[in-house]
Amino acid sequence: MDLKFNQSSIMSLRQRLIDTILAAVTFLAIFQIVVLLIRAEHFDDDALFFRVGIQIGWAFLYVFRKHVPYSVKAWVLLIAGYIAGVSSLISFGVEASALLVLFCTVIGTAYLINMRAAIIMLFLCIVPIIYFCYLAIVGELPFDPTIYSMNQTAIGWISKLVVFVYSVLIMLYGTHHFFKLLTQSINLLERQNKKKTAQADEADTLLKAVIDAIPFRLFWKDTKLKYQGANKLFATDAGMSKGEELIGKSDYDLNWKELADGFRLDDQEVIDSGKAKLNIEEEQILPDGKRIYLLTNKVPIILADGKMVGILGAYDDITSRKLLELDLQEAKDKANLASSAKSEFLANMSHEIRTPLNGINGLINLCLDSDLTILQREYLVKAKYSVNSLSTIINDILDISKIEANQLSIENISYSPNEVLNSLLAVVEPLAKYKEIELIVENKLDPELIIIGDPNRTLQVLMNLVSNAIKFTLIGSVTIKLNWNSTTNKLELDIIDTGVGISEQAQLTLFESFTQADTSVTRRFGGTGLGLTIVKRLLELMNGSIQVKSEPNRGSQFSVSIPALSGKDNTLEEEEVDQEDLFGISILLVEDNMINRLIAEKGLISDMANVMTANDGLEALAVLEHNEFDVILMDIQMPNMDGKEALLHIRESEKLKNLPVIALTANVLSHEVEEYYELGFNAHVAKPFEQKKLRKQILSVLESQS
Q: Mean of the per-residue pLDDT values for the chain?
């Protein structure tokens, strides 16, 4: 292999050398022809036309050099040079250019052919010179006397011969060593090239092994989005055995051609922006038609000089994770559907239960306002207590549903915790009195204290805890302690009872939904087991905490801490209006339930209001055509035309569009209430309602309208 390489390298060098010599000789031949023609005017030259022919022959040889084999060009050039030198020697002797031409011919033979041919050419050049030396010795030189006198002497020819031979030998020696050095250099370069090639092959093999060992799919493309390589994993996905098979192909040539547009769009974005595109989730089709999911990263390939040459991509097969995510999403969607179905069910049940409950509560209130015997009043008070208990159960179920659906929001407004306590006592004092339990209040709050928080949810927490304490206490007392810790800015509440107590085991699940200490508790005291769960969730929403200490048959203590900030009195809710009745106010009551309509009508009439009624939305619109009202109380779920549709007709009427409409309904879920306000209702009152709250809402709406 070394020999072949050296020979081809030397031949290539000689090829270039002979073409260069031909170019130089052809250039000189033009001037030589001119000189020969001028010289012909001064003396006769028998070889003139022969030499001119040689000059022309060199020119033609150069012109057609690409079509003439190297050996032919070399020998023609050398033979022509030899003839030119000998003919010049014959015509002009040693003082002409003969020796120079012969000298160049010998050296040219060494360069163009080889050293052996150069020795032969040297011998051929010495022969005519020796011949003329002999003629000089015998005195028979054929030159004209006008030629320089040295050509007439033997010593001149001998000295020229010695100089010629010496010069040629020196040049041949130098040429020999030059070619030897050239050969050694070529051999060295070949060995280095083989070593570098072996190192490069080894590095390339190692790099391929490293790339193939990477547990990700790798590929790289040029700026025209043609593949320039890939690792084995990627090649397998493309239906090939190795990455080299991908070179020159595009995404349209592979088994994911239907997805190629999307892939190339991302590739082009990376090339155009010069920035990486990371964490791309996409699909890919395998050779067997199976679809897999990928997490792909693509980065530009930029050289040290800043030139972009392509992109490098890497992706991981995330099919298992993606399928799990899809399964989880499907499960979540199903859960959301189930939750929506549950919420819808609860809303319907709430409406269906609250509607008759409102009737019962209203009828009891109407009876209590009439003349009754002591026994009748006692029975009705107990009945009202049962209604309140049932209402509490319904509220608990709705509250836990709203908490689970993340629909429960917390307010941050200024309020007086003393007023919250007063509201609490207004409800729980009759309960304690009814069970003949002592209710003790230890209020350490400043009467002027104002804090920022949610008064309604704080009241709800207290109501649940105190109601529980009263429910589970048969004899003894329930103590309520309130304190404001100004150091930690926390409202601290303690509810202590002497009731049945809670075991340590039961305390572990005390705040879980639908759990009580044991089944006997449910049978003995009733309830849903949601009260403490709601308390726990509400305190978490308010960033508060609750702790319990209890012993069976010795009572329990619940300690609550609620973070808050000091507030100002001017941010409190507006005081209730001074007017205590609805004298002179004209009201249209739209209610399909006969009992609820009767109760609401009686209560409004007792407040001195002027009331007309309608059974549904259609009847209400008919009444509005011939009568004027200050406000409308509108039920939502009604036959023929519900309250929402009736409101839309009212708001579209130029005459009625500004008429206040209050939603009077058993639908109390937060998203339902929000919908009513979005539709254009001015306010919302939940069933069952107290007449005082309804009166206050009517007056508040009318005041805001005015």
A: 78
